[in-house]
Every structure is written in C-alpha cells, then in structure tokens.
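Q: Structure tokens for this one, please.
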Amino acid sequence: MSRLDPNSMSRPYAPACDRNREPILDVLREVLPASGRVLEIGSGTGQHAAYFSAGFPNLIWLPSDLPENLPGIRQWIDDVGENCLDPVVVNLLSDDLQLPAADALSCSNTLHIVAWQGAVNLFAAANECLAPNAPLVLYGPYRYADRALEPSNVEFDEWLKARDSQSGIRSFEQICELASRNGFTLSQDRAMPANNRSLVFKKAP
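A: Here is the predicted structure, written as tokens:
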C-alpha cells in the first residue's frame, strides 16, 4: 500500500519498497545481463526503478505501469541517471498485450494484485519480447502445494481478496506451468524476507 513519501510530501511512497529493495537487488545482480535494457513491469510508486537503475548504471532501465501511476514514477526518477527511461504504459489486462523489446524483465509485487489473466498475458507477451536465455524475474508471495501458506500470507491473501476478488496469492505450481507453456524454465526459487520469494525464469534457447 502506498502513501506520501515523508521526505517529499508529494510523491507516492511504499515502505515495503525500502525493506525489500536490497534483497531483490542481490538477486538481480546474479541474473541480469551485463548490458542491455531491463523492462520493469508494475513499477508502482517508482521507488524500485530509481534504486535499481542507480544500482545498474550499465543497464537501461525502463519502468512501466498503468497510466495513472506514471506521474508518481516520474517524480522518483527525475533525479536519477539517464539510464532510467521515462515510464511507459503497460496494462497486463490488455486484450492484446505487447511489451517493448527487452533483454530482461523484472516484475515485483504485481501478479497477486492483478487478476490471473494478467499473469497469463505477461508470460505470453514476455515470450515475444525477450530473446532466448533472457531472464524473467518475479518477486512476491506464492503458495506451494506441499506446504501450508504462512500465517502472515494467509492474512494478506484474505485482505487482497476482500479488496478485489480477482486478486490473491498465486500458486507456485500454476505459475511454473504457465511459464512452461510459454517457453520458460525455472532456474531459481529463492526464499526472501517476510515470506516472499524470488522466482527466476529463463526463456528457452
């Protein structure tokens, strides 16, 4: 949930972005290419775009989100390097989703917010925009068939569904099956703080 940045009472601010940015950055350092363009899906407030683009000066960082979120993203990236591009509109629920060409794709805390069709559309479009062996990195909570959902995530899932019945914590197995159907293989499933996971998929050669 976002609110106003206490250091700038006009731009949006999500405290969770400050808490999870370092662990996510550690994963990205391992899997992103040395050069090229990273498309960030669901940039939200813009905090991650500002932080990650600064952490990868040799990469071009392209934020994206719904139209109403772009002004807030621009406030965060105004004072970062030129390698962070102006955000573009990406609506995962678009009937004909097409993504800009990229060398890697990063998507944090998004798939449990949008309807399942958003995940379906994301993988189909990612297959079109990414080259073979390119990474697709997902961060967020997931449920696993062989273990109970963590109590904190049970509460979070209930909150999500009360807010929007089409949202909710996604099944790890269903995500992997969806990825496989679209030419991606799972290369990492890493535990992250606060019962989150980082899933790294690679497009098939």
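A few notes: The chain has six helices and eleven strands. The radius of gyration is 16 Å.
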